[in-house]
Write a structure and sequence with these properties.
single chain, alpha+beta, 4 strands
């Protein structure tokens, strides 16, 4: 079974944030975003794969964000975090702790 990693990435040039799921070698499996929105509904956020090919082609221009940096960006632009966003970071932390 292939291990995947879900994380928040920021595009270097545009600043757009995406949730990107990658496999063990860094290939894009699925994506969701952009995430900065005042009306994100936790029940509606899923990995819809809409941007997968574009993200994969431009992956070098995405930077992995820490939970602290993501929270800082949300606060800076007047947004607040919702459980679905925090769960991505919690999942990453659990995976790190298992290693």
């Amino acid at each position: 079974m292939t291990k995947t990693k879900k994380a928040i990435y920021k595009h270097k040039k545009t600043g757009d944030l995406f949730a990107i799921e990658t496999d063990e070698v860094g290939q894009v499996v699925s994506s969701c975003g952009p995430l900065l929105s005042s009306d994100i509904d936790a029940q509606m956020l899923d990995y819809d794969n809409y941007w997968d090919s574009e993200i994969e082609a431009d992956m070098a221009n995405f930077v992995l964000l820490s939970k602290a940096k993501y929270m800082e960006l949300l606060e800076k632009y007047g947004f607040y975090s919702q459980p679905v966003q925090l769960s991505l970071f919690d999942e990453l932390q659990r995976k790190k702790e298992k290693k």
